[in-house]
Amino acid sequence: MTRHAVARRLRWQARSLLTLLPDGCTVVVRALPKAAVASSARLGDELRSAFSSAVVKMPK
After folding, report:
1. Number of domains in the chain
2. pLDDT score of 44
């Protein structure tokens, strides 16, 4: 049950961040156990950081 709740929160947060990535990108998000107790704001901050880092590392 908790796993599905975390997955829903992550999907909701990631939806607004997909515009940061180029078209055609595939994203896989893996939640560690401590994500179950993290706030939605914290999950959003972590995702935003990960997406920004991924964009910087992408070949131009």
Report:
1. 1
2. 92
Tell me: pLDDT of 60 over 80. no
Domain ranges, residue 34:
2-57
Q: Which of 53, 54, 39, 56 is nearest to 10 (CA)?
A: 39
pTM of the model: 0.80
The per-residue pLDDT for range 2-50, each reduced to its tens digit, is 879 999 999 999 998 988 888 888 889 998 999 999 999 999 999 999 9
Number of other residues whose CB lies within 10 A of the CB of residue 9 = 19
Residue of 57, 2, 1, 12 whose CA lies nearest to 35: 2
Burial class (CB in 10 A: 0-12, 13-18, 19+), 10: buried
How far apart CA 23 and CA 14 sit, in angstroms, is: 15
